[in-house]
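Hi C.,

You asked whether I'd gotten around to modeling the 365-residue construct. I have! Everything is below, sequence then structure, no commentary in between.
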Amino acid sequence: MAVSKDNGNGYDGRKWKVSCYYTDWTGERKRHVKRGFDTRKEALEYEHIFLTKKSKDINMSFGSFIDIYMEDVKPHLKKSTLANKGQLIETHIRPYFQNFSLAEITSTHILQWQNELLRKRDADGKGYSETYLRSINNQLTAIFNHAVKYYDLPKNPCYAFKKLGKSTAPEMLFWTKDEYLKFSDAIKDKPMSYYAFQILYWTGIRSGELLALTREDFDLEKRTLRINKTYQVVNGEEMTTSPKTEKSNRTVELPQFLCDEMQDYFDSIYKIDPKSRLFPISKHFLHHEMDRGSQAAGVKRIRIHDLRHSSCALLIELGYSPIQIADRLGHETSTVTERYSHLYPSVQRNMADKLNETFITSQED
């Protein structure tokens, strides 16, 4: 038995220890020692969990497998992505499944879990959004896929049912150019807010990319803006990391008026540091300014991310192709950009007018 009273140097025999052997992933036999348990029961429980994990036994508890999964994927994910994944798992997955064994979870358990999520309501009686439900469902599916691929679980029980939620929001809000101009005029009393929203609307960059910008990212002579990082706060820690995707590393061409405005902004900053953040504000500040400006301008309130939709819609209105726009916005494919094509109703109206002209012309002939 690998559990015993701890009478080693510096220990008085009142604690318990675990000393066991296991075979690692290379096939080498190794010894593992863990001290400091108050009771034999605690030590035995630790030993069982440890050896179960090392043996890849699918009869381990699902809670134990979550720990294995997070350790396995940790080296491959950005810190912010790992934190978001962990938050979803700890809030919505571990509490429900942790006491089941990995092997005993069936499609029926998945259905019951899905139904419980659908029944959840906040203080206002609202359930989770369709996109949030899809994110939760995707995390559970990913855990089981990992178990199937690397730990010999026979099948993923999530595939017996349709995924919860939807991958995209049901509605994309946006501002027309006139609506944005009213908004921007209303926030000119706070220069930092004005210049921040000017960049967001006219370039279509993400809010995290905006908050990471430094002076050296701008080349006003060449009229370019380099996007190669994003700013985030994860578990209270501020960090600047690589952008969302590989395609997000890009150079954005700037209109001359925006270069002139940014030069004015740079000139207003005392002893500007080329490597310091140009906008030392938070996303919460941007949300507050969106509230304030929308109300003052008398335009509908949209999300910060909807400014990206607005920029995309404007470029569609100006006649640029999805491929050209995808390159500017840093979309992985033009398919993403094509989702925005419905945003400008005038495009559809122009199509209808062209069809009408074609019909009339054919009748005259």
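If it helps when you're writing up: The CA atoms of residues 94 and 168 lie 25 Å apart.

Thanks,
B.
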